[in-house]
């Protein structure tokens, strides 16, 4: 059954400010995020906003940021708006339509308009240059401003050598940092995800999950391959 525009409008409203702000008595976790790319920065913004103590460890010096065009569809635009992201300052451009053209004649074969997405989904579909998007996310993550009083701490030139199952990080100089939670977000050249998965597998946690479930190993899945246990009646769905 299709929803009405009024129902869609209510569903897609941006949440009120401080919806995820900590309440009195809530425990603040000490969290490390490995990687300060887009995923790492958005994680830092959200976790800091929720009252946690966040440190981001980035292996580069941010000396030569690169990238091409990147889009934020209405779902992601709405999340960024909640955290006070400024699309104008980041050079965002409206993605109003997509045209498929014949490469030889220039004839437009198909048209897909997106101009009404703001009305339909509560936020626009926008285009950015990755460097500009990343810069604005850095401002939100690490600089105190009108939209945020809780920010993360950034460590540049800080690659992580090892991760311990107890949340201990080992830096190149041998320094050890202990955290309640570690978020691995070190990008397309990921180096820490596989060691983290191997560590979990070697700990016996996967075997405990497998034994605790009445389902087959195929249904549960393996962490080594990046699959997490979401049991379902149909193994192919898992």
Shape annotation: globular
* Number of E-state strands: 12
- Please state the CA-atom Rg, rounded to the nearest Å: 21 Å
Question: Sheet with the most strands?
Answer: 4 strands, parallel
Give the H and E element order: HEHEEHEEEHEHEEEEEHHH
Strand order of the largest sheet: 8-2-1-12
Low-confidence regions: 212-238
How much helical structure, as a percent, in the residues? 25-40%
Amino- and carboxy-terminal Cα gap: 26 Å
SS-based class? alpha/beta
Q: How would you state the average pLDDT, rounded?
A: 79
The proportion of strand residues reads 15-25%
Count of separate DSSP helical elements: 8
Can you describe this structure?
The protein has 238 residues and is an alpha/beta fold. 29% of the residues lie in helices and 19% in strands. The chain contains eight helices and twelve strands. The protein has helices at residues 5-11, 38-49, 74-82, 117-121, 130-142, 193-202, 205-212, 217-220; strands at residues 30-34, 53-57, 69-72, 93-94, 97-101, 108-113, 126-129, 153-155, 162-163, 168-170, 176-178, 181-184. The strands form four sheets. A four-stranded parallel beta sheet has the order 8-2-1-12, covered by helices on one side. Strands 3-7-4 form a three-stranded antiparallel beta sheet. Strand 5 (97-101) and strand 6 form a beta hairpin. Helix 2 runs parallel beside helix 5 (130-142).
């Amino acid at each position: 059954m299709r929803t009405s525009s009024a129902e869609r409008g209510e569903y897609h409203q941006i949440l009120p400010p401080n919806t995820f702000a900590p309440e009195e008595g809530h425990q603040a976790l000490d969290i490390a995020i490995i990687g300060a790319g887009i995923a790492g920065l958005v994680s830092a913004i959200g976790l800091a906003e929720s009252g946690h103590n966040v440190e981001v460890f980035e292996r580069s010096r941010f000396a030569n940021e690169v990238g091409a065009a990147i889009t934020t569809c209405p779902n992601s635009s709405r999340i960024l708006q909640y955290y006070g992201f400024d699309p104008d300052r980041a050079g965002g451009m409206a993605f109003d339509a997509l045209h498929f053209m014949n490469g030889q004649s220039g004839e437009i074969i198909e048209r897909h308009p997106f101009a009404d997405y703001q009305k339909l989904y509560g936020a626009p579909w926008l285009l950015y240059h990755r460097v500009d998007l990343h810069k604005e996310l850095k401002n939100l993550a690490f600089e105190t401003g009108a939209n945020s009083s809780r920010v993360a701490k950034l460590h540049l030139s800080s690659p992580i050598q090892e991760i311990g199952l107890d949340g201990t990080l080992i830096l190149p100089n041998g320094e050890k940092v202990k955290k309640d939670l570690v978020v691995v977000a070190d990008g397309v050249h990921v180096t820490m995800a596989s060691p983290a998965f191997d560590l979990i597998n070697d700990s016996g946690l996967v075997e405990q999950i497998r034994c605790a479930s009445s389902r087959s190993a195929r249904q549960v899945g393996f962490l080594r391959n990046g699959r997490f246990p979401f049991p379902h009646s149909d193994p192919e769905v898992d």
